[in-house]
């Protein structure tokens, strides 16, 4: 029915492709004209396009010309020419959509078109892929195109960044791969400043977080996020969408409880029913706990709770879930997940005494990445390896939230259409299926379903042996490392030569895939998502050079260019001959050992065969014991058919109806996973909005925005709050002027001694506030004059950054705890999301208040510490000047000078502000010219150092309780700012109007004050302290 309707109304994807046809025609019409251009004329096109942009044209106005330029540059530089379908893909990417292109259709080359066009705006473009190798190879491969057209190309990896430079040769790179040798190391900021930057999703995300932790503007590496193309977009934006990027630091201490609970939880027994069955069918659970596999959740039954309470020694009149045992439940939950949900060689591997996570979709090891919230420590305790210290989160963001910040986002992959609904709703991105350059002729055979898993693997073995006998290459796809090893052992016992591609063979991955199309080869691999390497029928000749040289007893490192060229020629002949034979045999054959819960993962595996019109075939082997079949498949129906027909274990059922039923089960699972991710986005959006506010304001501070007025306004708000607290307006309430002054002196240690509790009692409330604010502002001005206004601005920025960083870390920890606890709200019949939002907004208000208090109560005390630091600098300069003046003297002259040498003061840092007051860093100003600096400081010594102009004869030092431990600890700490606070009810400083009535005298003070003070005229707020 659906196909019939498509014939009538047409396919929406076809309509989109047809709409792009006129643009493609325009591009192809320029082919002859651009071929006739000289190299200089072709390169000059870039400057021409930029000039046209400056004159008001848009990128779309000259898209066809820009694409034609890149097309011709690619032909000249790398010998490749964009096909018509690749031009369509480039236009789709430029429009901020996802281009679904089959394996082997040249996505790397396609990306050069929109990257060049959008880079003309000068705002930077990013190409995001899944691993460092693919990023470096792709950038180095396409680099000559960009270089020809005058654009710079950067590459970022973990602890490495470089610029593409054809004149540079990296001596440590593989000299046989020209894509890897022309990378000149550079600063990370320089790599991001390139017109086009290639890198991985992890590095882009982590650099964003690190940028929001720096304390100086010149420490930023990224520019504002403008345009990105995400390669393997379904893997990054779907599979890893919920993966949080976390920058963490060690917490105060770790706990031995992980190992204690790792010993306790194995005694628990799993229930035979699921939480869904309990909820929907009312089945009473047996066992000690129930597992929800889809969400990886685990829940103790009443029997399990009682068992753990006895094991932990909890009294009978108390519960495991009492607040006092909160920490124990945290350890218990993680220990149960580690024991019963996260399995070795499936979710992780143990290497060199460390637990290494395995990506559930690609089978890749992810060294360095750790599960959060104590789960990784629980797994370490389970495996009896060293339990590393727990970490506290310093900064975090999910890929979903990071990539939604780009102004324009495109993506490319071989399989995204089945996830188009999720990509549209979460990222607002459409998916367009690009036609193949040559017709697809691969044959996808019906699934074969066996009763038992053993029978299924036996059938897979026979299929592989049959194919290897005739010389046809086979790629076997599995869904886990465990399955790969099981099948590998089976093949070894039967004498079948093969290669294994999984998390434990990561280093050999590229070589194995490149040769998987050779005659008689058998390759076992966890699902092929994100592999990024095409399988060429007959093999890849570049990968055979070393093998050919070895047969001649020549090491590739010692081979001459002539020997390498000869080996390459031989390799090409070998692969071409094998290609012809493999084509005659039917091409690459794909064997799937089970269906994945996502259709696109199965499609990715199938897509390895039949590239660029090559023949090929695929078949999946299933059993009724497979996880997907047990959880969602039509198992009962199929089992009934087999029993009625009397089917033996080794006889499969093969029918298109069953195929459709399985795909229907996959569709349901995809829908459920989408619901989970969508639900996660709703929770993440709460903190994402708050993160955006904090980070945006933090950037304003870094960019030098004057914070003086904001800080004075914060002080005004705090003083107003103190007035409300200690000088109530309510009738019958007594004023506590002593407590008020105690708090204000904490803010301003320079407050004159003649402002006393008694003197304030004689003044109206408004005049008290006006007096205090005016005095604080006068003292603030005095501090500015004492250390110079530009240095005060420096102190302000560092103080604000430090305050928000400290509070933001505490806030993130609180939000993690809230997320863990909020699930309990559903038990109380309340919406967890609404409760989470309500609590999160309340916590964010508290965060802003805490940051403001930090700044208000520390800004003036820290200015004293900075002044002391400047005194140390001047003392050191005086010593250096004295030493310089006496250089070259005779011993007698030196003695007559009677120079007294004092211990050297602490040195000024090269990145600290220069004491001369220029606002520049010391290294950029007076480093090496200390004598000149000293003369300048000496001229101003009377006002700037010797006798700082303060209202008091000698500046009062701030109370010790208000002082940070040191200048360096306070000023070198990064942090963030706040959104501008609301205006206080009473304007700060001199703007406060005088009171309408004169101050009350002692004679009209009411009795009952306790200090002879004034009683406020309205409701009570507090008693005066004696």
Question: Could you provide a short overview of the structure?
Answer:
This protein is of the alpha/beta class and 1026 residues long.
Fill in the keyword field for this structure:
1026 residues; alpha/beta; nine-stranded mixed β-sheet; seven-stranded parallel β-sheet; 49% helix; globular; disordered C terminus
Explain this structure.
The protein is α/β, with parallel strands linked by helices and 1026 residues long. It has 40 helices and 25 strands. A 9-stranded mixed beta sheet has the order 5-4-3-6-2-7-15-1-16, with helices on both faces. Helix 31 (708-726) packs antiparallel against helix 34, helix 34 (765-787) packs across helix 35 and helix 35 (789-821) packs antiparallel against helix 36. The longest helix has 54 residues, at 832-885. It is globular, with a radius of gyration of 36 Å. Mean pLDDT is 80; it is low at 4-9, 503-507, 897-906 and 940-1026.
Write the layout of secondary structure elements.
Elements: H1 2-9, H2 12-29, H3 31-35, H4 39-43, H5 45-54, H6 63-77, H7 84-94, E1 98-100, H8 107-110, H9 112-119, E2 125-129, H10 132-148, E3 153-157, E4 160-164, H11 178-181, E5 183-185, H12 188-192, E6 196-200, H13 201-211, E7 227-231, H14 233-239, E8 244-250, H15 257-264, H16 275-281, E9 289-292, E10 297-300, H17 302-312, H18 326-340, E11 348-351, E12 354-358, E13 365-366, H19 375-382, E14 391-398, H20 399-403, E15 408-413, H21 420-427, E16 431-433, E17 443-444, E18 448-450, H22 453-470, E19 474-478, H23 481-493, E20 499-501, H24 509-514, E21 522-526, H25 545-551, H26 561-585, E22 588-592, H27 599-606, E23 616-623, H28 627-631, H29 635-645, H30 656-702, H31 708-726, E24 730-734, H32 737-747, H33 757-761, H34 765-787, H35 789-821, H36 832-885, H37 891-897, H38 930-939, H39 941-946, H40 967-971, E25 1015-1019
Parallel strand pairs: 1-15, 1-16, 2-6, 2-7, 3-6, 7-15, 17-23, 18-23, 19-21, 19-22, 20-21, 22-23
Antiparallel strand pairs: 3-4, 4-5, 8-14, 9-10, 11-12, 12-13, 24-25
């Amino acid at each position: 029915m659906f196909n019939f309707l498509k014939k009538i109304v047409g396919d929406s994807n076809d309509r989109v492709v047809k709409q792009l046809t006129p643009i493609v025609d325009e591009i192809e019409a320029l082919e002859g004209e651009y071929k006739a251009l000289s190299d200089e004329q072709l390169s000059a096109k870039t400057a021409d396009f930029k000039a046209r942009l400056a004159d008001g044209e848009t990128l779309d106005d000259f898209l066809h010309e820009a694409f034609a330029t890149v097309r011709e540059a690619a032909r000249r530089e790398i010998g490749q020419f964009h096909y018509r379908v690749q031009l369509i893909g480039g236009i789709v990417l430029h429009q901020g959509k996802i281009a679904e292109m089959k394996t082997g259709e040249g996505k790397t080359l396609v990306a050069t078109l929109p990257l060049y066009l959008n880079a003309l705006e000068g705002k930077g473009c990013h190409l995001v892929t899944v691993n460092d190798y693919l990023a470096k190879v792709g950038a180095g491969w396409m680099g000559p195109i960009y270089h020809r057209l005058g654009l710079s190309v950067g590459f970022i990896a973990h602890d490495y960044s470089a610029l593409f430079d054809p004149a540079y040769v990296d001596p440590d790179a593989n000299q046989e791969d020209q894509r890897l040798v022309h990378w000149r190391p550079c600063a990370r900021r320089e790599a991001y400043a390139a017109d086009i930057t290639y890198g991985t999703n992890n590095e882009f995300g982590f650099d964003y977080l690190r940028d929001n932790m720096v304390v100086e503007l010149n420490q930023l590496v990224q520019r504002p996020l403008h345009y990105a193309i995400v390669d393997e977009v379904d893997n990054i934006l779907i599979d890893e969408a919920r993966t949080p990027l976390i920058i963490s630091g060690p917490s105060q201490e770790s706990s031995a409880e992980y190992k204690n609970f790792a010993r306790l939880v194995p005694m628990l027994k799993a229930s035979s029913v699921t939480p869904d069955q309990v909820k929907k069918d009312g089945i009473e659970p047996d066992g000690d706990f129930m597992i929800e596999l889809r969400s990886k959740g685990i829940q103790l039954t009443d029997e399990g709770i009682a068992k753990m309470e006895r094991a932990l020694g909890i009294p009978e009149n108390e519960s495991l879930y009492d607040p006092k045992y909160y920490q124990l439940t945290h350890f218990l939950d993680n220990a149960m997940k580690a024991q019963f949900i996260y399995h070795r060689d499936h979710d992780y591997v143990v290497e060199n005494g460390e637990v290494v996570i395995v990506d559930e979709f690609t089978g890749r090891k992810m060294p360095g990445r750790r599960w959060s919230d104590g789960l990784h420590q629980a797994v370490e305790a389970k495996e009896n390896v060293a339990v590393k210290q727990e970490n506290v989160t310093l900064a975090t963001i999910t890929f979903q939230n990071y990539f939604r910040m780009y102004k324009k986002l495109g993506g490319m992959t071989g399989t995204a259409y089945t996830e188009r609904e999720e990509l549209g709703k979460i990222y607002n991105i459409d998916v367009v299926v690009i036609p193949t350059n040559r017709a697809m002729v691969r044959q996808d055979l019906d699934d074969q379903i066996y009763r038992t898993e053993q029978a299924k693997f036996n059938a897979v073995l026979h299929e592989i042996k049959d194919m290897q006998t005739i010389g046809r290459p086979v790629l076997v796809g599995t869904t886990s490392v465990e399955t790969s090893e099981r099948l590998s052992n089976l093949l070894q016992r039967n004498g079948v030569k093969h290669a294994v591609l999984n998390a434990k063979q990561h280093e050999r991955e590229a070589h194995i895939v490149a040769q998987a199309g050779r005659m008689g080869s058998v390759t076992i691999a966890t699902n092929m998502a994100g592999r990024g390497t095409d399988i060429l029928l007959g093999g890849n000749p570049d990968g055979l050079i070393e093998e050919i040289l070895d047969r001649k007893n020549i090491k590739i490192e010692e081979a001459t260019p002539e020997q390498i060229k000869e080996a390459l020629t031989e390799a090409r002949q070998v692969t071409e001959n094998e290609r012809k034979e493999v084509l005659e045999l039917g091409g690459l054959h794909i064997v799937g050992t089970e269906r994945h819960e996502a259709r696109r993962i199965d499609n990715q595996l199938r897509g390895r065969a039949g590239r660029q019109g090559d023949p090929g075939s695929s078949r999946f082997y299933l059993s009724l014991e497979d996880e997907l079949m047990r959880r969602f498949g039509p198992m009962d129906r199929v089992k009934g058919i087999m029993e009625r027909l009397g089917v033996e274990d080794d006889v499969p059922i093969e029918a298109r109806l069953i195929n459709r039923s399985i795909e229907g089960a996959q569709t349901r699972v995809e829908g459920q996973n989408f619901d989970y991710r969508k639900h996660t986005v709703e929770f993440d959006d709460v903190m994402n909005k708050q993160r955006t506010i904090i980070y945006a304001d933090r950037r304003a501070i870094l960019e030098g925005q004057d914070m003086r007025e904001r800080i004075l306004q914060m002080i005004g708000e705090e003083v107003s709050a103190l007035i409300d607290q200690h000088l109530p307006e309510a009738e019958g309430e007594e004023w506590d002027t002593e407590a008020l002054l105690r708090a204000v002196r904490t803010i301003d240690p320079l407050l004159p001694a003649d402002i006393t509790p008694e003197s304030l009692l004689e003044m109206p409330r408004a005049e008290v506030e006006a007096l205090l604010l005016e005095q604080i502002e006068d003292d603030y001005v005095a501090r500015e004059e004492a250390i110079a206004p530009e240095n005060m601005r420096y102190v302000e920025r560092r103080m604000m950054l430090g305050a928000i960083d400290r509070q933001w870390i505490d806030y993130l920890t609180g939000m993690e705890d809230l997320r863990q606890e909020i699930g309990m709200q559903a038990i109380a019949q309340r919406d967890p999301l609404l409760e989470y939002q309500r609590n999160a907004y309340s916590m964010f208000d508290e965060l802003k208040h805490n940051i403001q208090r930090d700044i208000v109560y520390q800004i003036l005390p820290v200015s004293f510490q900075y002044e002391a630091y400047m005194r140390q600098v001047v003392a050191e300069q005086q010593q250096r000047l004295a030493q310089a003046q006496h250089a070259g003297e005779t011993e007698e002259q030196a003695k007559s000078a009677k120079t007294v040498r004092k211990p050297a003061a602490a040195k000024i840092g090269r990145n600290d502000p220069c004491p001369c007051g220029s606002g520049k860093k010391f290294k950029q100003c007076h480093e090496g010219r200390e004598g000149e600096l000293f003369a300048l400081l000496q001229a101003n010594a009377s006002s700037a150092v010797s006798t700082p102009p303060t209202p008091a004869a000698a500046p009062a030092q701030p109370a010790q309780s208000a002082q940070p431990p040191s200048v360096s600890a306070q000023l070198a700490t990064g942090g963030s700012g706040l959104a501008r606070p609301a205006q206080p009810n009473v304007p700060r400083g001199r703007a406060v109007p005088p009171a309408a009535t004169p101050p009350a005298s002692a004679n009209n003070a009411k009795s009952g004050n306790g200090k002879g003070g004034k009683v406020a005229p309205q409701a009570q707020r507090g008693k005066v302290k004696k």
